[in-house]
User: What shape does this take?
Amino acid sequence: MDNAMSSWPRLFRLLGQHSLAQMLSYRLSAAFVVVFGTLFAIGELASLLIYFQFTDSIAGWGLHASLALIATFGLIQHTYQFFFVVSHEALMDKIVHGELDYDLVRPVDSQLLCSLKSLDFPSLINMIIPAGILVYAWPHLDAPASVATLGAYLLLVLCGVVFYYLLNQLFVGLSFWIERPQQLAGVPEYLLEFATRPRTIYPRWIQFALAVVLPVLTATNTPVDLLRGELDLSAVLPLLAAIALLAVAARWQWRRGVRRYVSAS
Assistant: This one.
């Protein structure tokens, strides 16, 4: 176990170097990712500014709180994409085509290795706009701009990233049982789209379903509640409980799936 843990920093550095070299080899593809990510962010920003031409608040959220929300959504989304999205897309194909052998025999945790096989550096570039929006919006909110507040905010964002990773991991893991998992792999992304808006705009049953049962709204709204000075710590509990349950479920699914896995060779 100690040897496996000590090998992770070197392995992660090598994976990063390989991913960076791959991005430089496919510059056009990387440029498209950055361009479309930028256009999506601009579209979100433009639509929000249009809404606030006709109102001062949306369900109690002002312009700057709403800007912080789309920034938080972007940070969670692009952080997940930077670390995991390329690996998750490749993992589905590897499972279906029986090409997972080499990853399973390495002396490290196979689930984590297959989740971090490649880094998406264009997604790292796409974090610039959400970070800029957050820097602009924060001084207009109630929470003080302090190191403690920033640390708490980043911790909540990290919880959102872990939640989103685990949710995607469960859907990717269905590849052990389903021949065409791509049809279901987009479900977490569709769910997260709900989280680009304040949870208070939704009917109560949707709030309960997506803030408590499967807390995608909590993942994005809670960090902004902190910046608004309205964070209720009890609201974080469903997110933490979901992370714990999803982590157990994803681990169980992986172990069952590996036993079911059939190599192409």
